[in-house]
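Possible race condition, two jobs.
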Amino acid sequence: MVRPVQPRRLRRQLGSVGGSASSELEAFTYFLRRECQLSDNTVAAYRRDMRRFLRWAKSQKGSPPSMDVRQLADYVAWLHSRSLAPASIARHVVSLRMYYRFLQLDGRVRDNPAELLGSQTLWKKIPEVIPPRLIDRFLRAPRPRDPFPLRDRALLELLYATGCRASEVSHLEVRNVHLKERYCLCEGKGNKQRILPLGAAARHAIAEYLNGERGSLAAKAASPPPWLLLSKSGRRLRREAIWEIVRKYARRAGLPKRVSPHTLRHSFATHMLAGGADLREVQELLGHASIATTQIYTHVDTSRLQRVHRSCHPRA
């Protein structure tokens, strides 16, 4: 949750923010990181969005503090014309709202015109999932001839077993993986921790990796690395590398090119609901702040909806 900040205090911390677009971006970044306490990934995404918006505003010969909701709607229309994904457009709208809140707190605007833009739910789309019949083929895609098959198998099993985001798996530390107790402790957005069960397949894959490849990978680091998943140089396996690994094995398994770590998260949630899990339980496992975010998965599993309808509707 964003903590309230008094305008005078914010101006005192930032100093003068008038001037170049770069200084404006730095001030906005400070606001996101220090005042809103957002994660590094979220701050980076909002910063990219705002760089694009400031370039657009300059091309329109407009000043952001003087723009109204019609001009901001033109910007959203321009984003659509660039063929951005619905989720990306939705995030750009949230970035705009945060930016104008920053301008409010800095005393440069009185109202937040971005609040009048349509809800981000207008751009939501039903996520794609991997059918259960193809999951096993995908998880078994790493082969002995691959550079690090044990690590990669552990990664894939962990993503599907927990529904974690790529960034969460990237930062997962060995001390937070409890194989005997069958769970791991994950730190998500806003530094919120959640306990996630580990199934037998995931525990087995992680144990094989810990007893095999991880030792040689860790030996390449200057000091003992705390993270579970390591790169070939013994460093933390970065989010970008995780995306590349997932796409590599998705291609090998004959899955669509657009499969990503988030596809495994979508698949986890959808398959849990299909198996009879309660929506609130899935919300807790995914670490969603709002159940409305989790609710989109109820639109994916039509078979479950049909079963519920048949068992509950008097004229089914």
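Job #2 (started ~2 s after job #1):
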Amino acid sequence: MRLTAVIAMMGLISVGCSASSETPGSTTTLVPDTTTTRAPSNEICLSGDLPFGPDGLIAALGDDEGDATSVSQIRWDPSGTCERLTVAFGSVSDAPATTLGPSAVSVISYAGIVRAGLPAEVEASAVADTLVEGSLVSSVFVVRDQDGFMFIDIHGADEIPIQARAFTTTSPATLVIDITRADTTATPVGVTKSGSVVIISPTPGPAPYPTVVDGYVEPGLLAVRVQVIESDNAVVDRSVSVDGYHDTWQSFTSMIEEGPLGTAVLFVGTLDGNEKPLDGAFVSITME
């Protein structure tokens, strides 16, 4: 998995914490195609009255039409008890985009994920993933779903419940997502991942039939194997095709309608020449 965090010098874009935090007429420069981080500052993402949401859809935002066609940069800013992700976009002319089209941001609380669905016009990305390792955010993945639409998954730190809020700016177009700890005693199950695979469901534990296996795989793969392994034997074994995109991770879904009962291991990944698991992720499940 190409998890990288590249520190780059860039012109700073000043934004506030409300949906109206735009700077009309501000001077902009070409945004580098990279991911950057910044040293902690004073609670930049707790000011203003925009509420945080702990689960489900938290923001439907963006303009009816936008000129954003690519993800050009993802920047992480730690700030005391909160962390901010700022996504910058490019236009078809390779200049910074001025507006972002219809978008939606949700929190998948059981998995500890904040997901940003991007407009259909956003068709490319200069960033596939980045390792953050903050106190609230661990990593970020840019993903294409099975219909080719792109979304960004922000993974929370292990066992930390998170909540989020989001807003956009124009000229330049950015999507800003603020994350803080949720006021709950519930602990997210999280996801299972390796260097090449992220499994969102099922989670470890009971898995009743039919079971949906879904997640995403690294850029460049054309297919992934989904197996249910019992006593070192693959009692369920299927190949799931993906599209081979090289600039983003790729979603997959597989439905397991029937199989063994009891304790088993779910494997998603690639196999070696002996048809044994080579590279991927394993989840301990109890099939019911």
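The chain has two domains: 34-181, 192-287.
Logs attached separately.
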